[in-house]
Amino acid sequence: MATKRMTPGFSDQVLSLVKALRTDAPDCVASGAVDMATGMLLAYETVDNHPPEVLDLLAGATLDLFQGRTVAMIEDVFKERRGVSSDQHFFQEILVNSDNLTHLFVRMNDHQDVVSVVVCRKSVNVGMLFAQVRRVVREYTV
Questions:
Q1: Which of 44, 46, 66, 118 has the fewest Cβ atoms surrounding its Cβ within 10 A?
Q2: Per-residue pLDDT for 7 more than 70?
Q3: Distance in angstroms between the alpha carbons of the first and the last residue of the chain
Q4: Residue 2's pLDDT band (boundaries 50, 70, 90)?
Q5: Which superkingdom does the taxonomy of this entry point to (predicted)?
Q6: CA 83 to chain centre
Q7: What pTM, to 2 d.p., does this model score?
Q8: How far is CA 91 from each of CA 10, 28, 33, 52, rounded to the nearest angstrom?
């Protein structure tokens, strides 16, 4: 089993996570981390320059994907029907394909309010993308 990568503070951990995702994910053009409690982008790395408003929209879209009103309702129904009372979220990973890019969103294992975002070229091997991102996420405690 992989050892947890530890750094002194939360900000350092997030920055290290984003850097590792950017480096280790195949065909990666950008990576980031979004705080689900605030809807803010905590950190990002990208090969291109993007206007700040686009980055803010990415954070908001991530929040909507994982915790939007309808998603929260679905989770509540599942929890009620299954008799689950924990705060654990059901949606852990979401893959989105656009015309030219593949976006993978993954909740952190130990901190459900942080979602990692990895953006790759559309030609990426999706299986390798999932394997590498899961490996990096597993190694970090954020």
A1: 46
A2: no
A3: 18
A4: very low
A5: Bacteria
A6: 27
A7: 0.86
A8: 24, 23, 16, 27
User: Which amino acid, residue 114?
Assistant: V
**Which distant-in-sequence residues (6+ apart) come within 8 Å of 105 by Cβ?**
62, 65, 66, 93, 94, 95, 96, 115, 116, 117
What is the CA angle 74-80-86, rounded to 5? Answer: 90
Distance CA 105, CA 93 (A): 6
> Is 115:108 a contact under the CB 8 Å cutoff?
yes
Higher pLDDT, 36 or 8: 36
**In this structure, what token pair is assigned to residue 66?**
């994982």
Mean pLDDT of 24-36: 95
Residue 57, token pair as written in the block: 């929209």
SS3 (DSSP) at 18: helix
